[in-house]
Specification:
Structural class: alpha+beta
Largest sheet: 7 strands, mixed
Number of domains: 1
CATH superfamily: FAS1 domain
Distance between the termini: 38 Å
Oligomer: single chain
CATH architecture: Roll
Strand content: 15-25%
Radius of gyration: 16 Å
Strand order of the largest sheet: 2-1-7-6-5-4-3
Number of helices: 9
Number of strands: 7
CATH topology: FAS1 domain
Helix content: 25-40%
Length: 192
């Protein structure tokens, strides 16, 4: 286990115990700044719009719209009409494909999915789990998504995979209503 991560977790737990009523977000006592990790976290601004502190104060779809690495995901969420659904959900985890993840999808296929609201909604809701997941829960997990499919996670320390193929490139990002793990591949729900 990563010693630095363990120390940060102990400090964060102690702070949470000592300051249970600290309000990080406007009107939201549940906003949480977690302990982001991963190589893509370096692209997140240190302060201001899009920073981890700023994202902790707003709901997940709004937070994603402030992150330049998630602009394709935000376009897809808007196209599917899921902005309010995600912003109003409580205690969720979003495995958020980066722009690079969407770039792996052939352009014609991506355009076809973006034009099919039902299919787009199915794919996007497969990236959402109805509970906030900690990195420890990702070590060997199986979770039901809002799409009703299952996804699996594995790994440890600061190295995690989703469904055995997608890497978490920046994880444990807190928003007012969600925990976000940015991934380097678009997850596809099981075919039914």
């Amino acid at each position: 286990m990563n010693t630095n991560r363990t120390v940060r977790t102990v400090v964060a737990t102690a702070a949470a115990t000592l300051l249970p009523f600290a309000v990080l977000g406007a009107g939201s006592a549940s906003a949480t700044v977690l302990d982001p990790f991963g190589p893509a976290c370096a692209s997140v601004p240190k302060d201001g719009s899009g920073s981890f502190d700023a994202m902790a104060k707003v709901p997940v779809a709004t937070a994603a719209s402030q992150n330049p690495e998630l602009s394709t995901l935000v376009t897809a969420v808007k196209q599917a009409g899921l902005v309010d659904t995600l912003n109003n959900a409580q205690d969720i985890t979003v495995f958020a494909p980066t722009n690079a993840a969407f770039a792996k999808v052939p352009q014609a296929d991506l355009a076809k999915v973006l034009a099919d609201k039902a299919q787009l909604t199915k794919i996007l809701t497969y990236h959402v789990v109805g509970e906030k997941l900690t990195p420890a829960q990702l070590e060997s997990g199986s979770f039901t998504t809002l799409e009703k499919g299952k996804l699996t996670t594995s790994g440890s320390g600061e190295s995690y995979k989703v469904n055995g193929t997608a890497n978490v490139v920046c994880g444990d990002i807190g928003t007012a209503n969600a925990t976000v793990y940015m991934v380097d591949s678009v997850l596809m729900p099981p075919m039914t």
